[in-house]
Amino acid sequence: MKTTRQIRFFILLCFVVQYFVSLNAGEYRRIKLSEYLDKMKAGWIGQIVGVSLGAPTEFRWKDEIIPEDKMPKWKPQMINNAFDQDDLYVEMTFLRTLEEYGLDVSIRQAGIDFANSGYPLWCANAAGRNNLRKGIAPPDSSHPMFNKCPNDIDYQIEADYSGLVSPGIMQAPIELGEKFGRLMNYGDGMYAGQFIGAMYATAFFEDDLVKIAQTALAAIPQQSQYAEMVRDMIKWYRDNPGDWKKTWSLCQEKYRKNPEYQKASNGGIDCKINGAYVLMGLFYGNRDIEKTATISCRCGQDSDCNPSSSAGILCTMIGFSKLPQQFKTGLDETKKFNHTPYTFPELIKVCEKIARQVVIKYGGRIEKNQDGEEEFVIPVMQPKPSKLELSWAPGPIANSRFTPEEMSKIKYTPGVSLNQAIEKFAPGWSVSYCGSDMNPGLRSEWQGRKNVLVTHPLDKDTGCVISRTVKIPSGKKTYLKLIVGNDPQGDFDLIVKVDGKEVLKTTIGPKTTVDHWRTETIDLTKFAGKTVKIELINQPNGWQYEAAYWGEISIISE
Fold this sequence. Notes:
With 558 residues, the chain is an alpha+beta fold.
């Protein structure tokens, strides 16, 4: 009899569980298209504001709080300083892949597109892209066997897009992380981006910042150190609600000084400590955009990317129409983000296009309400996180390699030397002392010019030299014409020597170029009838973004 009652109770319990599961499965949330666009647009503005505010401080304060009097103050004209920031244009590479191939694009195609990107990269991004260019296909491109920076911040600072196209749908940032985050990050490094994307997705419907973080936790493995960091940050904030510097000190003790949390870490670029600084701004910023970005920035380390994420999430929650005026005026809507095809209005359009696909893919629908306005009808669903992986104890590699056909689609191949590149660009010239930073070689296009050669100094003291020995003709006027540009975030000294004597030294940088380019003409007529060696030197002057972009090198006689 007892067994029969137990069976009946079990059957009844199953019906009850099934009933509530069906209720949850049938639960939907609605957001008007106009509201979605308003919030998504604000999310991009928040990123722009955060990175523009923090850019002058990036990695200048490590393991110390930036003094208040050293912090930039927001000025509306700063809003146009973000077009050249990798915090924005790298994630737009992923958007472009989604735009061209759709949500079901393969990870291998995503890898090919990333391998073909032409901008400078560092840390996990650089390691992952180098692996892809060597033929190591994803997911192995991010595996710790091939990538020594698996827990770096890279995908965390690039994952904002994944939440901005996924209103209320945390599963989408998880799966987009598996597609794009796996190109360069592994374990916590990938979970960091999935978490950031899930926070954005949640911010479309939730207006409590701690709840946004708690909800987004469900998108990553709970046993991961990154999830542990998020739980710590919530606890420390509740223990010290009025003292962010106390919480900062607790972060330092555990996530910087404890060796258990430095495994597979690349120092201050580790995703956990920088992710903590994102949350620091969100929790202690009192829903004030500048205060949020400033706190994330003052925590130090990657102090432009972290406020970009915190301000982006906060602004998504607020919505563009409710942003203070000083954050939404003056943006140049005709200028393209560096290395992308997108102006700001085009960026908003492509995100709307992809968001429509996301809503449909994850069981939602798009309807018109009684006022004729389109609405996203979004199912409530429990996310399924990626499996737990530890970067310091990784699983086996997948033995994934690009096929010859796939390799033929990758334009930047490691077998082509820089001298082969310059032979195509400026026949007769050669390159020496060129460093590997910032991806030297030929670019099909850069800053409006086609066929651009990129060089970089060998080290902090040694400039890259482009040289040629040439006979200057008699009876003609002869001159050397150079069109040369600088990286938007740096400058360098251009030195020109003829037979070892300096004939020109000038800085190529934001203050001396027009739209990143400068033309120099050097008269060589006085060397008529002589054979001379001409040297063009890309000389370092501060060791920050010191690549030279050569648009033209020519000797002209007339």
